[in-house]
Amino acid sequence: MLPFRKSFKPLARNLRSNMTDAERLIWSKIRRKQIIDKQFYRQKNIGPYIVDFYCPSVKLIIEIDGSQHYASVGMKKDIERDLYLQNLGFTVLRFSDIDVLKNIEGVVERVYEYVKNLP
Fold first, then answer.
1. Distance between CA 117 and CA 67 in Å, rounded?
2. Which residue, 3, 25, 59, 110, could crosslink 47 as a Cys pair with Cβ 3.0–4.6 Å?
3. What are phi and psi of 46, to 5 degrees?
4. What's the domain count of the chain?
């Protein structure tokens, strides 16, 4: 069972209702088992974090990063977050929001290749 913070449930619900353009775009490409019949969830509460997208069957997390992630404070927080998630056995794929908006097919291809090449 995944670590879960009940107090994050309303925040996760709010984030699902107010996705960024980049999040909406990638969600339109990965939802409803469009990638090798794998189910993805959005704004999933895992421990002290809410991850953007989560695929339990392959233990994959997809993060879409806006500009705040490229400041030194944001990068440090992302490293801590990724280490926590990796210690739970997850792989984290990060994409910039600009990459998603300008190269969605490349982003989806990278996710597809990751899922396809798992043992």
1. 30
2. 3
3. -130, 110
4. 1
Structural domain for 105, as ranges: 6-113
Sheet holding 60-65, edge to edge: 41-46, 49-55, 60-65, 91-96
Q: Give domain status of residue 48, yes or no.
A: yes
- Give dist(CA 7, CA 45) in Å, integer: 10
CB 92 within 8 A of CB 61: yes
Q: What is the 3-state secondary structure (H, E, C) of the chain?
A: CCCCCHHHHHHHHHHHHCCCHHHHHHHHHHCCCCECCECCEEEEEECCEEEEEEEHHHCEEEEEECHHHHCHHHHHHHHHHHHHHHHCCCEEEEEEHHHHHHCHHHHHHHHHHHHHCCC
Residue 33 sits in a domain of what CATH number? 3.40.960.10
Tell whether 30 is covered by a domain: yes
Q: What is the pLDDT of residues 30-82, one digit of tens each?
A: 999 999 999 999 999 999 999 999 999 999 999 999 866 566 777 889 999 99
